[in-house]
Amino acid sequence: MTRSTDHRAGREGTYTVSRSRILVVGAGFAGVECVRRLERRLSPAEAEVALVTPFSYQLYLPLLPQVAAGVLTPQSVAVSLRRSHRHRTRIIPGGAVGVDPKARVCVIRKITGELVDEPYDVLVLAPGSITRTFDIPGLVTHARGMKTLAEAAYLRDHVIAQLDLADASQDEEERASRLRFVVVGGGYAGTETAACLQRLTRNAASRYPRLDPRQIKWHLVDLAPKLMPELGDTLGQAALGILRRRGIEVSLGVSVAEVSAEKVTLTDGRVLPSRTLIWTAGVTASPLVGTLGTETLAGRLVVRPDMTVPGADGVFALGDSAAVPDLAKGDGAICPPTAQHAMRQGRAVADNVIATLRNRPSRPYVHKDLGLVVDLGGTDAVSKPLGIELRGLPAQAVARGYHWSALRTNVAKTRVLTNWLLNAVAGDDFVRTGFQAQQPATLRDFEYTDAYLTPEQVRAHTAALRARE
After folding, report:
1. What's the Cα-to-Cα distance from 126 to each of 226, 264, 299, 318, 423, rounded to whole Å?
2. Using CB atoms within 10 A as the burial measure, which of 30, 190, 242, 282 is most buried?
3. Measured between alpha carbons, how far is 68 from 65 in angstroms, rounded to an integer?
4. What angle separates helix 410-426 from helix 392-406, to the nearest 10 degrees?
5. What's the pLDDT tens digit per position in 154-179?
6. Tens digits of per-residue pLDDT, 406-438?
7. Which pLDDT score, from 0 to 100, does residue 372 have?
8. What are the residues facing 449 on neighbouring strands?
9. CA angle (315, 146, 291) in 5-degree steps
10. Distance between CA atoms of 374 and 377, rounded to whole angstroms?
11. What Cα–Cα distance (Å) separates residue 151 from each residue in 155, 158, 412, 435, 442?
12. Which residues touch 38 (CB under 8 Å, ≥6 apart)?
């Protein structure tokens, strides 16, 4: 294994310390858990650790709907990576856009736009996922996502702007289209987004005397026959009942056929006048995985049970971008892309990296499912901790308790708890922060999906690098 050298001075003169170069891509749940464990269990003399991420924070993704609804501030769910007392990881501000496993080089596009080459001995790929889209006319141009902090902040401004514009409008058709909101995706992200934002607009209606609250309409659309099937029929039906009692129209077995600036056409022929389409219909692995040239499964990197990548020496992959075998379920099952799995895989990969450096055997990833939680805002929630079905206040207590305990720093926990208490006492506010640009940003703009190199470009880039050497 190629290693970097660190020249140090001592009583007997200068001596050289050989250190492995560990490069971790992605600061999501998987990447951060891996880095923190490496910092705790590896001495600085054993390895130097670098982390590639465009932002020096870990985003607590499950709470994004509450950011969009204004219950939590953006800073509450952006947990700083520099607060740890053990922080010694070099943070490279940018995104990995290509990997050449043979040259052991990762190509990084820094936030300045500059391409840099980062050599590694061990590469941990946890680049996460991007919003999954389909070839639907107008979708990429007019849909809004819920995958990044910028999208959540933008979406809040956009929804409140629709209320402001509808209140000022004298045109009934314009008013109707601005007050109709369509959410596509009946999974956790879509259901929680629809529930939290509908609650925001319902509470805001009293502040707009020229608006009829009955004109504010929310639609939740999903091609699947059931809402959140992972919860089981009982809790899935309970969540469906909560949404419909609030006035949210839920259409299952239906998807989007076409999107324009002022209307959404569904596959059942309905045309909904709407200027807001929120797209949460699943995720797909980061385009980075396609640059390695190794085997993929449904877009995710195929990995062994210990999360090493076949055909790419020194490379581990985990989280949303890896098809990690679910040994607890068996029968060829793959771990779903959830925060629970990502955090555990991050710790497991760190242990396997350390075992590799110390010439010890690695271990397969095995887990025990802790259950699922869904926060629908207010006192509404459904949860299934350890297989126990809960709803209402008990479910809400479990959901928020789980999210609160999963936050990595005490500062983040304090901010979230304070925001929850303040919202419970003072209620919602309806202030636009000004993040909404004059020209609406697209999914591609928010998630930088066009920033990646092709495999051929990566190989050419690293070949040119070797030629210069």
Report:
1. 30, 35, 14, 6, 34
2. 30
3. 5
4. 150
5. 999 999 999 999 999 999 999 999 99
6. 998 899 999 999 999 999 998 888 888 876 655
7. 87
8. none
9. 25
10. 9
11. 6, 10, 20, 10, 10
12. 22, 24, 47, 49, 89, 350, 353, 354
pLDDT of residue 445: 74
Q: Which residue has the tokens 């919602």?
A: 428
> 153 with 190: CB under 8 angstroms?
no
- 467 φ/ψ angles, rounded to the nearest 5 degrees: -65, -35
- pLDDT for 438: 58
Residue ranges in the chain modelled with pLDDT below 50 = 2, 7-17
- 3-state class percentages of the chain: helix first, strand second, coil last, to nearest 5: 35, 25, 35
Three-state SS string across the chain, please? CCCEEEEEEECCEEEEEEEEEEEEECCCHHHHHHHHHHHHHCCCCCEEEEEEECCCEEECHHHHHHHHCCCCCHHHHEEECCCCCCCCCEEEEEEEEEEECCCCEEEEEECCCCEEEEECCEEEECCCEEECCCCCCCHHHHEECCCCHHHHHHHHHHHHHHHHHHHHCCCHHHHHHHCEEEEECCCHHHHHHHHHHHHHHHHHHHHCCCCCHHHCEEEEEECCCCCCHHHCHHHHHHHHHHHHHCCCEEEECCCEEEECCCEEEECCCCEEECCEEEECCCEEECHHHHHCCCCEECCEEECCCCCECCCCCCEEECHHHEECECCCCCCCCECCCCHHHHHHHHHHHHHHHHHHHCCCCCCCCCCCCCEEEEECCCCCEEEEECCCCEEHHHHHHHHHHHHHHHCCCHHHHHHHHHHHHHHHHHCCCCCCCCCCCCCCCCHHHHHCCCCCCCHHHHHHHHHHHHHHC
pLDDT attached to residue 466: 67
Q: Give pTM, 2 decimals.
A: 0.89
- What does the chain come to in residues? 469
Cβ-contact 289, 302 below 8 angstroms: no
Cα-trace Rg, the chain: 24
Q: CA-to-CA distance for 160 and 253, rounded, in angstroms?
A: 30
The pLDDT of residue 12 is 41
- Answer whether 107's CB lies under 8 Å from 96's CB: yes
Q: Any alpha helices (H) in 103-220, and if so which ranges?
A: 139-142, 149-168, 172-178, 188-204
| Beta carbons within 10 angstroms of residue 346's beta carbon | 28
Token pair recorded at residue 214: 């009955």
pLDDT of residue 14: 42
22 with 49: CB under 8 angstroms? Answer: yes
